[in-house]
């Protein structure tokens, strides 16, 4: 075991040597875990090492806060209802640069780092891409040395665990906190009261002015839990503050006094349900009120916290808020913050309206994540006014002043005024949260070039015409620390050797790989790395599903939430097409392929759940049929999450990004695949457009209708039956599924899916089918030329630099937040 370089023993809380870490682990096993040596399991070593690592971040955290306070640097606050952080231990070891020390220290204790890492329950506090984006951005903010706070919700139960029973998705509660969470530090003294419901009343203040106050019907307490966010290779350590709901004890006192002890306890229980569970998206109506409460709860705590920090600054007042903090709204979930900040400034700080509004707009930025009308948040007016009566009044006031501005800018255009109102009139009055976020922000952005353009000429068109200067694009990115270095150690080593270690914080340096794209020896190494990753994934697939995969096959992977717009069913239609071709022509020479799927369906999303059943049913038939299983297998890998994503993205040869053009705002999975050398088969949607631009059209498999063609087709009246009638293969595939070929003769189970495709097909699966199948045939042909495939694969990684979240965060900091780097010593 290595001693520290100067021979003295390093402190066990901060030392970076294996020796110091070893002592720290032993200390934590003894004093924090409290287990006799004989009873120690890998999970205890996990907790002890995690605590030792947290200690090492804590000093950096203190230094970062102090530096930022001393120098008055502006801070980014990233407000997000979801943070899909993934396992923390590996990422923190990497960012601290103590992976080897940890491996050695554990080895000395007879433990294997890999086994210890596997003990972590990942915090699944998000649904998918949006939550994972927030997590990648926290990693980049810290690595770029930008002071930042992530604000969110400490859900007791994160996204459900998915099991597959008899081919169907079954949801299990995610008990991620069962064994405690070594990363967080509870801060019971950092707590705020949050009101809910009740009424508003007028009163005269000391100066005799008429004022309004909110008298909530209920109070809930929010308590902070802080998780350190360590930057890579720097001292900067930011923080993720998650709020947890508690009952307000004094509030329940009356019940206690009147002897209604159980009523008081009941109140306590209901208060704590506020942060009980993460809602799956695509879940209609049910539980909506609690969701609004969750949003308001975490936003109010966060804003109160920010104002509290402002109060403590010697050199600033609340008027300086926009100079000291940037508040970013990750989608509309935190957009109630616009009204809440106004309430805090006007009602509680007694600022005049115009001053407060100036501060609010200068401080907030809004990132839009979707154009899907059903996903744009609106709240029924009745529900809203019962829940947040004062906020509704404030929104009315914002709206009336805003609409006057619209009238001034577009005189006589009352239709425009009606369209732009924050209060929707169609089908029962609603509060339109995307509009509130837009009006309350000085900067509005989409998440890929195409998406930002579509935003400007669809859902926010009127607002773009009002304030064109507020709109910009910030194409998403992903962190290469987690999604290359941590998840693909083989590639990491090869990149280090080939382009030097700097790529990890300057991903454009991967361009240096281009020179090796035609080097036979390098291609050999490239393939060896990919092959080892495929063997790793094959092992996981074997344990999870019992299906055996051959790592020499083409690994064709689609992992993401299951959704009609993402079109997993289009993928299945191609699989069944290839299956039919093989059945009809046993001599067909097909390039062997493993079709691998993963992803969760929202529990209430009927068709998405049928799509999972279809994938597993097709797999069940194909995988055991000796006349086809030499050429194809179909796998549904259960419970796609960040942990298994680490094994999945690096193992792909082909990345499926096949959404209907115009529907996927950006995608980030597409970027993770590209960095790891997968080729993309995709539509011109979201960031695929930019991926193809960067990779070069020759290194991308393009198919399908464009956004313009999709719109034209819909406008002219799309009739899927015409496409089915014109394509005998498509007709045969649909018949086969509908007539129960994959369901033991059961003609009911897939009928809703097939009917949807035949008679409605809102996402144009039938229209894109022929183009997709033809493109898949091109993929198969290209795969036969291994050297050329490697050439394309190397170029994809080489040209993925743009998709680092470091690039995205640098753009946000420069264009929207005006937050500069601050080196911590
Ligand atoms: C990246 C990621 C996503 C987003 O995938 P898309 O293909 O962009 O939809 C969802 N879930 C997890 C676990 C991820 O890592």
From TrEMBL:
Belongs to the glycogen phosphorylase family. It is an enzyme of class 2 (transferase). Keywords: Carbohydrate metabolism, Glycogen metabolism, Glycosyltransferase, Pyridoxal phosphate, Transferase. One of its GO terms (cellular component) is cytoplasm. It comes from the Bacteria. GO terms for molecular function: glycogen phosphorylase activity; pyridoxal phosphate binding. This is Alpha-1,4 glucan phosphorylase. Its EC number is 2.4.1.1. Phosphorylase is an important allosteric enzyme in carbohydrate metabolism. Enzymes from different sources differ in their regulatory mechanisms and in their natural substrates. However, all known phosphorylases share catalytic and structural properties. Its cofactor is pyridoxal 5'-phosphate. The modification N6-(pyridoxal phosphate)lysine is found at residue 672. It catalyses: [(1->4)-alpha-D-glucosyl](n) + phosphate = [(1->4)-alpha-D-glucosyl](n-1) + alpha-D-glucose 1-phosphate. CDD domains: GT35_Glycogen_Phosphorylase. One of its GO terms (biological process) is glycogen catabolic process.
């Amino acid at each position: 075991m290595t001693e520290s370089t100067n021979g003295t023993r390093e402190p066990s809380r901060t030392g970076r040597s294996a020796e110091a870490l070893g002592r720290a682990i032993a200390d934590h096993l003894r004093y924090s875990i409290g287990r006799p040596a004989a009873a120690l399991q890998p999970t205890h070593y996990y907790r002890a090492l995690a605590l030792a690592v947290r200690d090492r971040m804590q000093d950096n955290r203190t230094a970062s806060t102090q530096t930022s306070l001393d120098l008055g640097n502006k801070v980014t606050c990233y407000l997000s209802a979801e943070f899909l952080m993934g396992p923390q231990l590996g990422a923190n070891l990497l960012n601290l640069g103590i992976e080897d020390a940890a491996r050695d220290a554990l080895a000395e204790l007879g433990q294997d780092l890999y086994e210890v890492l596997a003990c972590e329950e990942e915090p699944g506090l998000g649904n998918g891409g949006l939550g994972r984006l927030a997590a990648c951005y926290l990693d980049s903010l810290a690595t770029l040395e930008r002071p930042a706070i992530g604000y969110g919700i400490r859900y007791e139960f994160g996204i459900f665990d998915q099991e597959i029973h008899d081919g169907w998705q079954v949801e299990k509660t995610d008990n991620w906190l069962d064994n405690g969470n070594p990363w967080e530090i509870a801060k019971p003294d950092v707590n705020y009261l949050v009101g809910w419901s009740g009424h508003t009343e007028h009163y005269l203040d000391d100066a005799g002015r008429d004022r309004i106050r909110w008298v909530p019907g209920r109070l809930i307490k929010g308590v902070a839990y802080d998780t350190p966010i360590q930057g890579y290779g720097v001292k900067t350590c930011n923080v993720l503050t998650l709020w947890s709901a508690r009952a307000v004890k004094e509030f329940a006192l009356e019940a206690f006094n009147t002897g209604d002890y159980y009523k008081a306890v009941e109140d306590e229980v209901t208060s704590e349900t506020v942060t009980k569970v993460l809602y799956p998206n695509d879940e209609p109506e049910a539980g909506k009120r609690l969701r609004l409460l969750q949003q308001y709860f975490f936003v109010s705590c966060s804003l109160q916290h920010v104002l509290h920090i402002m109060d403590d600054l010697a050199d600033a007042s609340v008027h300086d808020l926009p100079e000291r903090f940037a508040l970013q709204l990750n989608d509309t979930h935190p957009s109630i913050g616009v009204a809440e900040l106004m309430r805090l400034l006007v009602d509680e700080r007694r600022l005049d309206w115009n001053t407060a509004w100036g501060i609010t707009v200068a401080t907030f930025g809004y990132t839009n994540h979707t154009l899907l009308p059903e996903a744009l948040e609106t709240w029924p007016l009745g529900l809203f006014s019962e829940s947040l009566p004062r906020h509704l009044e404030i929104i009315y006031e914002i709206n009336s002043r805003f609409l006057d501005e619209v009238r001034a800018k577009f005189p006589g255009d009352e239709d425009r005024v009606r369209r732009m109102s924050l209060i929707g009139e169609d089908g029962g009055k609603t509060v339109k949260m995307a509009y509130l976020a837009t009006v309350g922000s000085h900067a509005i952005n989409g998440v890929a070039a195409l998406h930002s353009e579509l935003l400007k000429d669809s859902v926010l068109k009127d607002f773009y015409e009002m304030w064109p200067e507020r709109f910009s694009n910030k194409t998403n990115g992903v962190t290469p620390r987690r999604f290359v270095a941590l998840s693909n150690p083989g590639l990491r080593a090869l990149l280090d050797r080939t382009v030097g270690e700097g790529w990890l914080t300057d991903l454009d340096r991967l361009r240096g790989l281009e020179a090796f794209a035609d080097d036979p020896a390098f291609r050999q190494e490239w393939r060896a790395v990919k092959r080892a990753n495929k063997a790793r994934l094959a092992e996981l697939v074997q344990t999870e599903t019992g299906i055996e995969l051959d790592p020499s096959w083409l690994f064709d992977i689609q992992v993401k939430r299951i959704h009609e717009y993402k079109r997993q069913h289009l993928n299945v239609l191609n699989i069944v097409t290839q299956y039919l071709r093989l059945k009809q022509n046993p001599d067909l020479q097909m390039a062997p392929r493993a079709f691998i799927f993963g992803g969760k369906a929202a529990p209430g999303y009927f068709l998405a759940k049928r799509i999972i059943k279809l994938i597993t049913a097709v797999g069940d038939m194909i995988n055991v049929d000796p006349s086809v299983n030499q050429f194809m297998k179909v796998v549904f890998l259960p419970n796609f999450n960040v942990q298994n994503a680490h094994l999945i993205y690096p193992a792909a040869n082909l990345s499926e990004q096949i959404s209907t053009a115009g529907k996927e705002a950006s995608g980030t999975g597409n970027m993770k695949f590209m960095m790891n050398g997968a080729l993309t088969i995709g539509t011109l949607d979201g960031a695929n457009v930019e991926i193809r631009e960067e990779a070069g059209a020759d290194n991308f498999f393009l198919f399908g209708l464009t956004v313009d063609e999709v719109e034209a087709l819909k406008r002219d009246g799309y009739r899927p039956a015409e496409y089915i009638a014109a394509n005998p293969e498509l007709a045969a595939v649909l018949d086969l599924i509908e007539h129960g070929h994959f369901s033991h003769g059961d003609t009911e189970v897939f009928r809703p899916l097939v009917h949807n495709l035949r008679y409605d097909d809102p996402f144009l699966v039938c229209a894109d089918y022929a183009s997709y199948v033809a493109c898949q045939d091109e993929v198969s042909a290209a795969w036969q030329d291994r050297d050329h495939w490697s050439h394309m694969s190397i170029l994809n990684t080489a040209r993925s630099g743009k998709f680092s979240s470091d690039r995205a965060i640098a753009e946000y900091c420069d264009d929207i937040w005006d937050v500069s780097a601050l080196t911590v010593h």
